[in-house]
Amino acid sequence: MLCKSMMRIFSTNHLLSNWFSNAMLQNRAVTPLKNNLHATSILMGIAALPLVATPVRALEVQINPQKPLLGDTISVIMNLDNSTRSSNVTVTSGKDTYPAYEIAPNKYRAFIPTTPLEKPGGRTIKIDAGGESKNIPIQVGSRKFTVQRINLPPGKAGVSATKYELQRATEFRAVRSPEKLWSSTFLKPSQARMSTPYGVRRYYNGKFANDYYHRGLDFAGGNGSPVVAPAAGRVVLVGTVSQGFRVHGNVIGVDHGQGVASIFMHLSKILVKEGDIVKPGQLIGKIGATGASTGPHLHWGLYVNGKSINPMPWLNVSVE
Ligand SMILES: [Zn+2]
């Protein structure tokens, strides 16, 4: 769950100097200062008092969830002190840098996606904000993903994607738009029974597929049953079998903003066009069996910063 537990790390940098300058502003008796000696004696006098005031927090960080499991979206929320001049915020972990967006005055948020292809264990989140740096250690727990064994007859390796299809899919995953379009928990895009969960791993003819995991949720709806937008967004991809979408089938991609995007595959009908703004719950298409699909179903993939994450928490918790 994304918002249940929070880890707070408070900065003590400049605590005394900030406290001192605050005290100075509130105490007319100490002004005007005549020389450095005078200032030093006041500082020592104040420092000798018990520190009962709330410490000034220049950079406060919350990590949700506190104990993420593979597939979770890690949310890094950073509250900067009002007096912080620099608003250059960067969040890195390992080799990757994650975009931080201002979601309220002096409040920033970055998403770190995790997937079943990664190793569980310790990582460090490095934050640079308002001239301060923090290294926050986190533990990413393992999760048991269902394993399927698929046997394909010789010479039947399945359908392969066209070059155009791959190119459009890559472009879809690369979309980063600064405006946050979603506003609460996501809706299920189909009311049908969920048939395949997120993250399923596969063996093909006895050989483990290292790069494969089920990148979304499947809904076993009948042909023609409704598909609705799970959240507000902008349609950035509409593709059809006739254009070469051999694997995806008829497909819609919706950008929810700030690196979050949905894909809907195997549709029988598409009811939107690229550039359309959709509302949560709006009918956008109909379930089908187009592309690499053995029967009618909806595949819904939710991407965060280009990686397919587990959509389930987004259905249960409103992500800031
Ligand atoms: Zn699927």
Written description of the protein model:
The protein is mainly β and 320 residues long. The chain folds into two domains: 59-140, Sandwich (Immunoglobulin-like); 147-316, Glucose Permease (Domain IIA), CATH 2.70.70. The protein is 13% helix and 36% strand. The protein contains four helices and 22 strands. Strands 11, 14, 15, 16, 17, 18, 19, 20, 21 and 22 form a ten-stranded antiparallel sheet that branches. A five-stranded antiparallel sheet has the order 1-2-3-7-6, with no helix packed on it. Strand 12 (201-204) and strand 13 form a beta hairpin. It is globular. Mean pLDDT is 85; it is low at 1-47. Zinc ion is lined by residues 196, 214, 216, 218, 299. The site of zinc ion has 5 residues, from loops.
Spell out the key features of this protein.
320 residues; Immunoglobulin-like; Glucose Permease (Domain IIA); 2 domains; ten-stranded antiparallel beta sheet; five-stranded antiparallel beta sheet; 22 strands; globular; binds zinc ion
